[in-house]
């Protein structure tokens, strides 16, 4: 199935409607061009269910994971964007990229509270300004990826190149090679 056929099957939300569907702080940071926002039903919001229902492979689903880490005596948050088909190398590559002494996945409540987004819909766009946003190098090899949109009821479809052009994005190898 080609991407344009897929897009025709998606319930696309027009850009002038984004504000009615997505958190304002997400909309503010979305690139003006090149992003398709579409509705998904809540029961198909999680990656595996989404992939099955909408026909996108796990290798085209880019998840945003919130990490809490300690560095220079302070506690910080960061967002990691990686493909659903890859495993994050948390204690190796991620720790090194952040220069963290200790790190862990953020608790669900903390991730939701600090990002002001819905769990299962957290996206790289619209996160607090003091968070680092790390994107796994494997994401950049895809033609297009599907990402969260800040809410469970919508997703973003975009070319990874848009992430590369975004000033907040840091590209680094964060995942283990596929087995």
Commentary on this structure:
There is one protein chain. The protein is α+β, with helices and mostly antiparallel strands and 179 residues long. It is built from seven helices and nine strands, in the order αβααβαββαβαβββαβ. The chain has a five-stranded mixed β-sheet with strand order 5-3-4-6-9. The protein is globular and about 45 Å long.
Q: What would a concise description of this structure say?
A:
This protein is α+β, with helices and mostly antiparallel strands and 179 residues long. The chain has helices at 3-9, 18-21, 24-29, 47-54, 90-98, 108-115, 160-165; strands at residues 11-13, 35-39, 62-71, 74-83, 102-105, 132-136, 145-148, 154-158, 169-172. Helices cover 27% and strands 28% of the residues.
What's the layout of helices and strands?
Elements: H1 3-9, E1 11-13, H2 18-21, H3 24-29, E2 35-39, H4 47-54, E3 62-71, E4 74-83, H5 90-98, E5 102-105, H6 108-115, E6 132-136, E7 145-148, E8 154-158, H7 160-165, E9 169-172
Parallel strand pairs: 4-6, 6-9
Antiparallel strand pairs: 1-2, 2-8, 3-4, 3-5, 7-8
